[in-house]
Design brief:
Bound molecules: pyridoxal-5'-phosphate
Strand content: 5-15%
Number of domains: 2
CATH topology of the largest domain: Aspartate Aminotransferase, domain 2
Number of helices: 13
Shape: globular
Length: 369
């Protein structure tokens, strides 16, 4: 941490976003400002474009949006829904997407499963078979419940329903697990930078399929700030439609350097390891996990604290406080499962060594709750 600025009284973040940001990233974020229409910015964006494409396994251009993820989540609806959208809902963020569809004036239908369950391909298939829909929204890793839905199985439906736009939020999974955009055949893949990328909040990255770009071009009320056509036209010139958060682009360049120095496979393996370590801590201490077995997230662990039958329960607020006093912030559960679950993130730069002190703090806290 940069002495005097960042480490004074700082509580290390193990909440599922924002997550801890490294000193190297912060230094990059603080690079001197440049003009966003100048060659310096174009060179910067052009330099990271191939890395972004490699990270998303795509030949499409990857766009940078100065907004949190919700900007792109809302924008995708405005660009791509003309008939009716199927909102696949399994937790707070995916449930909210249905609400946002309605607020955008779109015809929308809920495919709701209980929190803790994944979205299943057969349920989507049954809905799409009605022929009513021209788009669907799916959250790959539902951060509120710690559930990862089977993206490959769901994306395989695209072949059966080529005219339906598959809009996928990978906010808390992109860069931590492989998501092969072109191979999956999905239409939009988006993420905010404050989750697995471990950058400060305030920027999102996303890619669109050629079919999505073609469909957006026909959409009348797609607006300006999140217009996919503007993003595509500008990205072709290594620019963004409006003035981006240039600090974020520097930080992203620094992070991509880290990602490719480590190697994608090693990065994915590291997330699996630190996640396993968290699950092991939970089971060692008598806790159950909240997600349906077999559908647990790899980037965060949602621990049951009474939400599931059996298993240990503790006073979560007290646990949080005891852990915070030792310098770590964990999450006390989201929305309607606040308190009956709690969440621990292993996203971003965490290693087994960097997570060890958190578990030591949790163990010591458990003796007092
Ligand atoms: C955090 C999160 C969001 C919302 O991101 P904002 O940065 O607040 O816009 C959306 N989807 C998922 C899965 C998330 O984890």
């Amino acid at each position: 941490m940069i002495p005097g600025i960042f480490n004074m009284g700082h509580v290390k973040l193990h909440i599922p976003g924002p997550v801890e940001v490294s000193e190297k990233t912060f230094r990059a974020f603080c690079s001197p400002m440049i003009g966003h229409r100048g060659q310096g910015f174009k060179d910067l964006y052009a330099r990271i474009q191939p890395q972004l494409q490699q990270l998303l396994y795509t030949k499409q251009l990857v766009y940078i949006s100065t907004s949190s993820a919700w900007g792109v989540m809302e924008g995708a609806l405005r660009n791509l829904v003309s008939k009716k959208v199927l909102n696949c809902m399994c937790g707070a963020f995916s449930d909210k997407w249905f609400d946002v569809s309605q607020r955008c004036g779109k015809a929308a239908e809920a495919l709701q499963v209980p929190w803790g369950s994944p979205i299943r391909a057969e349920d989507i298939d049954r809905k799409l078979a009605t022929g009513q829909f021209d788009a669907l929204t799916l959250i790959h890793n539902e951060t509120s419940t710690g559930v990862m839905s089977p993206l490959a199985e769901i994306a395989a439906l695209k072949q059966k329903y080529p005219d339906v736009m598959f809009i996928v939020d990978s906010v808390s999974s992109m860069s931590a697990v492989p998501i092969k955009f072109d191979e999956l055949g999905i239409d939009v893949l988006l993420a905010g930078t404050q989750k697995a990328f471990a950058l400060p909040p305030g920027t999102a990255v996303f890619a669109c399929s050629p079919a999505a770009i073609a469909k957006a071009a026909q959409a009348k009320d797609r607006g300006y700030y999140f217009d996919i056509i503007e993003f595509q036209k500008n990205a072709e010139q290594s620019m963004t439609p409006s003035t981006p958060s240039i600090g974020h682009v520097y930080a992203l360049a620094s992070k991509l350097e880290d990602i490719f120095d480590e190697g994608l496979e090693a990065r994915f393996a590291r997330h699996r390891q630190t996640n396993q370590m968290t699950r092991d801590w939970a089971s060692r201490n008598g806790f159950n996990l909240f997600p349906e077995p077999g559908h647990e997230s790899i980037t965060l662990t949602c621990v049951s604290n009474g939400a599931r039958p059996g298993g240990r329960t503790v006073d979560v607020a007290k646990l949080q406080k005891l852990v915070k006093d030792q310098g770590f912030l964990i999450d006390g559960g989201y929305g309607k499962i606040k308190g009956t679950t709690f969440r621990i993130s292993n996203m971003g730069d965490e290693t087994e060594a960097s997570m060890q002190p958190l578990f030591a703090a949790l163990d010591s806290a458990l003796k007092q709750v």
